[in-house]
């Protein structure tokens, strides 16, 4: 006997088929309208599917915490399979995937990050040595190029960065270009972008096979994700075997897709905020001055761990501009949610469920004056991100929270502490708007002026 009769969420009707589809892919106005009309939970019919939006921490706990046999990723993220390749991540069942994510965890643990950090710093120094005394640059494309270099070095492998960079970049570019909004629903649609994606994915597999064979034969041990995957073994109940070359290639591509555009978007937004908010630039400069006075010039792993001002600026840039604007799951077993006001709904088996970091971060009962850039909101006693689990969800959370969280902070703080110590900046164009064209959202292009100087 259920004292509170529970029911299906309200249906947000009247959105035509195609309109519903477009709105689902660029969902913010839809979420605002739906939330104003129905509150935290509502369902949007899109084609033959029901997409139920869960908005805010009161209704997303189960979404983030439940096991994959109840709330699953595979059905909604399967569009990645032709890009990542066979035998990895969303092409395998949850048991194998969990093993593969254990390899990610191994590759991204603190002792490895400590080895990657000097490599990231090295790439950063080299990259900006090509800038002049003063000049104008488009910041987001510069950050995109730099993050491609650091990712190649630390993730894809030393050989790729040093010898095969141009070729691999071309192939990865084709994989990127093959991931269109339409690919999300129809990943195998026979269009030119998909054909090119499949061709380049094959070439990448062949190229990696050679790199892996050569590295195995030489017996060399490198500092990169590739090495961790070469050394990894499935547990004994999976026969204890090593990864195949094809699996290694697939997991490296998956890591790159998880980490690259997300990081370059965040490095860019962090920069645009530092440059345009003088009070924050001043505080960040002061923080670097103090660190240098106490610990000297070198930007080490330990130092970047302890840059609270830069950390807060980056966290706030990410709150306002999370690169992943929708997180999705598929409901395998019906469940109930209860809203803040105490209303209970049943979310039926077969629904796609979605929550939006961007929208959640804009709710005024969670974040005071949510549209304001205010990095101090994370300081005690305010700690607005800590009030309730799943309030700050730029990195997701719970069972499938981002495994690259620390990597991302270390990388971006390394880049920006180097820039703050060596350059001054001003905006040339106006502060950028988000560019909602792709699946990972970054800023539109915007130019900055730089001038070299030493702190
Ligand atoms: C998962 C965001 C950087 C690896 C996620 C999720 C989000 C996210 C929102 C959860 C997706 C979901 O629940 O469906 C970000 C942001 C980044 C970033 C904002 C940068 C600022 C990275 C980096 C790596 C990485 C650099 C690796 C090198 C992963 C992996 C998962 C993941 C492996 C899947 C975890 C799982 O499903 O259990 N990330 N990410 N991420 N991220 Fe990141």
Automatic annotation (TrEMBL):
Its cofactor is heme. It comes from the Eukaryota. GO terms for molecular function: heme binding; iron ion binding; monooxygenase activity; oxidoreductase activity, acting on paired donors, with incorporation or reduction of molecular oxygen. Keywords: Heme, Iron, Membrane, Metal-binding, Monooxygenase, Oxidoreductase, Transmembrane, Transmembrane helix. It holds the Pfam family p450. Heme binds at residue 402. InterPro entries: CYP450_sterol_14alpha_dmase, Cyt_P450, Cyt_P450_CS, Cyt_P450_E_grp-IV, Cyt_P450_sf. PANTHER family: 24-HYDROXYCHOLESTEROL 7-ALPHA-HYDROXYLASE, CYTOCHROME P450 FAMILY 7. Belongs to the cytochrome P450 family. This is Sterol 14-demethylase. It comes from Ostreobium quekettii. The lineage of its organism: Eukaryota, Viridiplantae, Chlorophyta, core chlorophytes, Ulvophyceae.
């Amino acid at each position: 006997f259920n004292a509170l009769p529970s029911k299906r969420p309200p249906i947000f009707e009247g959105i035509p088929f195609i309109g519903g589809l477009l709105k689902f892919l660029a969902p913010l106005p839809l979420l605002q309208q739906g939330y104003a009309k129905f509150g935290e939970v509502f369902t949007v019919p899109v084609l033959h599917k029901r997409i139920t939006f869960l908005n805010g921490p009161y209704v997303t706990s189960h979404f983030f915490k439940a096991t994959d046999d109840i709330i699953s990723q595979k059905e909604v993220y399967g569009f990645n399979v032709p890009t990542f390749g066979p035998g990895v991540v969303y092409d395998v069942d949850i048991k194998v995937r969990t093993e593969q994510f254990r390899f990610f965890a191994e590759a991204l643990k603190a002792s490895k990050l400590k080895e990657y950090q000097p490599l990231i710093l090295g790439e950063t120094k080299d990259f900006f040595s090509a800038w002049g005394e003063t000049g104008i640059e488009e910041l987001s494309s510069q950050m995109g190029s730099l993050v491609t270099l650091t990712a190649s070095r630390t993730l894809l492998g030393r050989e790729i960065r040093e010898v095969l960079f141009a070729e691999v970049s071309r192939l990865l570019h084709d994989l990127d270009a093959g991931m269109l909004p339409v690919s999300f629903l129809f990943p195998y649609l026979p269009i030119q972008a998909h054909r090119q994606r499949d061709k380049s994915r094959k070439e990448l597999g062949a190229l990696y096979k050679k790199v892996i064979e050569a590295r195995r034969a030489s017996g060399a041990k490198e500092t990169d994700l590739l090495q961790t995957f070469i050394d990894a073994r499935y547990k004994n109940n999976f026969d204890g075997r090593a990864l195949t070359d094809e699996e290694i290639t697939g997991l490296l591509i998956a890591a790159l897709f998880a980490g690259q555009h997300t990081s370059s978007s965040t490095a860019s937004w962090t920069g645009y905020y530092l440059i345009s908010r003088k009070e924050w630039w001043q505080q960040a400069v002061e923080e670097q001055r103090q660190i240098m006075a106490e610990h000297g010039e070198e930007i080490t792993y330990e130092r970047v761990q302890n840059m609270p001002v830069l950390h807060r600026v980056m966290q706030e840039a990410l709150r306002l501009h999370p690169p992943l604007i929708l997180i999705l799951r598929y409901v395998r077993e019906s469940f109930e949610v209860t809203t803040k006001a105490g209303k209970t709904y049943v979310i039926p088996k077969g629904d796609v469920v979605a929550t939006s970091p961007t929208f959640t971060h804009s709710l005024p009962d969670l974040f005071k004056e949510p549209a304001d850039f205010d990095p101090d909101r994370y300081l005690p006693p305010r700690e607005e991100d800590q009030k309730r689990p799943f309030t700050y969800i730029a990195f997701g959370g719970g069972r499938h929270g981002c495994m690259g969280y620390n990597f991302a902070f270390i990388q971006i703080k390394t880049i920006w502490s180097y820039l703050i110590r060596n350059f001054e900046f001003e905006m040339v164009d106006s502060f950028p708007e988000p560019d909602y064209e792709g699946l990972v959202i970054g800023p539109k292009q915007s130019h900055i002026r730089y001038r070299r100087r030493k702190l």
